[in-house]
Design a protein that fits this description.
Two copies of one chain form a homodimer. The first copy, chain A, is an alpha+beta fold. Chain A has a domain at 3-119: Sandwich (Jelly Rolls). Helices cover 50% and strands 24% of the residues of chain A. Chain A is built from nine helices and ten strands. In chain A, helix 8 (168-175) crosses helix 9 (179-188). Chain A is globular, with a radius of gyration of 18 Å. The A-B interface holds A 60, 62, 66, 68-70, 82-83, 86-87, 93, 122-123, 125-126, 129-130, 132-134, 136-141, 143-146, 173-176 and B 60, 62, 66, 68-70, 82-83, 86-87, 93, 122-123, 125-126, 129-130, 132-134, 136-141, 143-146, 173-176. The first copy, chain A, binds a DNA duplex through residues 147-149, 167-169, 177-181, 183-184, 186-187.
Chain lengths: 189, 189
DNA sequence: AAAAAGCATTGACAAAAATCAAAGGTTCTT
DNA sequence: AAGAACCTTTGATTTTTGTCAATGCTTTTT
């Protein structure tokens, strides 16, 4: 049943069929409508999600109520409230579906157990970590050095599919600019 | 000789004396004056650094020549041009001393070998990765959601020692604002 | 110690971006 | 299908921030 996840794992790690099954049984399927909250704010994040179909985002809120998109996940991406999941601490951020989505999720305790059950798991996990960390470094470089116009141009070049797929409002909140500014940048040039 | 590094490692990982020695022999000592470039731009980053004494930063440059501080390391921090080090690819960023510094450094190939030589190394490495990734997530949250004033206030609260220690110019380039704006924020309130 | 280079501050101005508000267009709900 | 809710665009305005330039201060360098 978890077609994409199985495919994803076999592509990314060296693993026996038995080990693969040991991983897959830890994941449960969830189908969700649009705009549903899968991890609530001010809770400990207990699950890691894999997106089979659809789109999810991590939302962080400012004191004045404004909301910002810290992370976006589409097909074949993992997503969770990472700081909360890792340290099992409370977080103000929440995880929300942007589209109707099919996801697979694994609990924190089962996730931890995979280290013991599957020999190559740590290596796989570390590799994913490295990649997401590199991506976050690149995002930081852009956020400190670029103004709205350049952030938008860069987003259009590197994530054209997201720009088409996401509501304007969410793209703007991912870039750290207001939706009005994004709307103007889209038309101006 | 690598006093702090030895102390740091024994505190952070479970390790025998022999293993510890196997790690330490991979590191070489370097003493550097202020404003020296330890990893040059447009090169493959071949070393990972541990700061014994002093202060280093990763500088990224914009097309117009403006420079920004992507990362800062002081005593007991590791630092490198991570994307370049990890994938052994060319990077425009460079690593520079902010103060006269004593550092220990390890080559990429030796770093890779530690996975085989020291059983707990991967676990240790993963744990450092997790922590730095969490820190980068927090920085992203701030950069997308906060304006200059709030970024400065936050920096003052969370890194008061850095604010005192760093030249204004570098603090500003770390926060993604101009030094004039930082100077005004410092006096205004 | 003097000169030079670099850094911080301040003012004036320009550019960028946020905010507020209104209108028209979608999409969702019933 | 009608109404509601939401999203997008656009205009007007204010706020924030960047840029340029000048000055005084500090730190290097010679």
């Amino acid at each position: 049943m978890p077609g994409y996840l199985k495919k994803y794992l076999t592509q990314k790690m060296v693993i026996s069929n038995e080990e693969l099954e040991n991983i897959l049984v830890c994941f449960k399927k969830l189908q969700s409508k649009k705009n549903q909250i899968l991890i609530h704010p001010n809770k400990i994040c207990k699950h890691l999600f894999f997106v089979q179909k659809g789109c999810l985002r991590v939302v962080c809120t400012r004191d004045d109520g404004q909301e910002w998109t810290r992370q976006i996940a589409i097909e074949n991406d993992f997503i969770t409230i990472f700081p909360s999941f890792l340290e099992q601490t409370i977080s103000r951020s929440y995880l929300q579906t942007v589209e109707a989505s099919d996801v697979f999720y694994i609990s924190y305790s089962n996730f931890k157990k995979l280290n013991n059950i599957v020999p190559n798991w740590r290596e796989f996990y570390t590799s994913i970590l490295e990649q997401t960390y590199v991506n976050s470094i690149k995002r930081i470089e852009k956020l400190i050095a670029m103004d709205g116009k350049h952030l938008y141009e860069d987003f259009k070049i590197n994530h054209p599919e997201l720009l088409k797929r996401l509501p304007n409002k969410i793209s703007a909140s991912y870039l750290g600019i207001s939706q009005e500014t994004l709307s103007r940048l889209k038309t101006k040039k």
